[in-house]
Amino acid sequence: MRQDLEREHRIQLYREQYKDIGKLLYLWQMAETRKLTDHERVVQTGFLLRRVSGGNDGMGTLVKDINRQFDNVLVHLEDDFPNLGPADFKLFCYLTVGFDNDLIAELLGLSGKNPLYLRKTRLKKRLKESRSPHRDLYLALIEE
Description:
Layout: H1 2-34, H2 39-53, H3 60-69, H4 73-80, H5 86-96, H6 101-108, H7 113-128, H8 135-142
């Protein structure tokens, strides 16, 4: 019980670090995809955020940071679920750092809340049915 509380507290502290980054990334993503008038003001922030999230070609330092903080959890995830697609892998990462639903939907290119809800539900079900020794950690990291 105490270990669960300590793990939960550790996850919450970790997510707090990404809360502002998530807000800024959402603003930048909206400016880029919707061509909002304040685009120029947000562009410099976007460059910084792209470096944090790894840019368009991968998850970059986000994956490294999650692995560093949580004992290579993403390595274990890939080993336990070799057929996990890139979108579900990214979803797991975004949930781990605590990004909100609007940002996650935008980053995954989903329109509306229903597709994201379905993806999250499917991912959680898959993790719950797992016999992995890391199952509890996986579920703890993606709980909201």
